[in-house]
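note to self — DONT lose this again. spent like an hour looking for the file last time. sequence + predicted structure for the chain T wanted, 304 res
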Amino acid sequence: MRRQFDDVLLGSIELFCLAAEEGGFTAAALVAGVTPAAVSRSVGRLEERLGTKLFVRTTRSIRLTEGGRSYYEQCRQALTQLVDAEREVMGKQQEPSGTLRISLPTTYGHHRILPLLPEFRRRYPKVRVEAHLSNRNIDFVGEGYDMAVRVRAQPDSTLIARPLEDARLLVVAAPEYLQRIGAPLVLDDLQQHECIQFELPSSGRRITWLFSEGGKEREMLTDGGYLCSDDVLGGVTLAKHGAGLFQTYRFIVERELAEGSLVEVLQPFAGRSRPFTLLYPQHKHMPLRLRAFVNFIMEKQQAW
């Protein structure tokens, strides 16, 4: 049988049904934990596929067209059957299996989660893991993700949030750079140093550096001739090769610190951190593969 549906299409059908039931894209987005734009795009994909309008839109409301009403009724029935089938299978299933689709920030993925996956799959060989490394925001429903790890995750009533760790920050530089320029001794010395910048790809905003000074938190916008985006490891590589100072997470540079290719500076002002969180949608019947992975990660994170 030729494949007719992919994960994106099925997600679009779910969002279409939610929009019909909630009476609007914004209301559907709140229920699904996505943006109104994601709901609108999903409905647009369906309308393009079907070659017909599913909703009559006004500035304040939407209503189903005649074709939209018929399509909704059949889609809702099909989705209900899928849920029932999944519950029946999960009730009989004794071993986690299937595909687990996870979204990871680049640095946290490389240094924390990816090294654990071989052990997880030895424990649960019937689970296939798809790891997508990116720092962008994702659409859980539309893109079919089971789980994500994010830094400074925003509260969301549709998602379960499990704290992983407060990752400690520090400023590092190569010995060669410090021999050439000298080490900063106080925070104001940063004005005379080459500070490698990292830019958030989602907003284009430069990340400020975080410090503790005199028992108070201090946030500084530094400056320099190097700018990295998307992957924090780019800043680490530049620092290792003598480009300047860089603030990053300690867990990323532990090896470099141990071997001496990077040195920590401004230690009296360290101590700040950023929180990493495990996120996954709320489920009435949580898939065994997801439950197994969450339990596995929470078991491992105690060592972090």
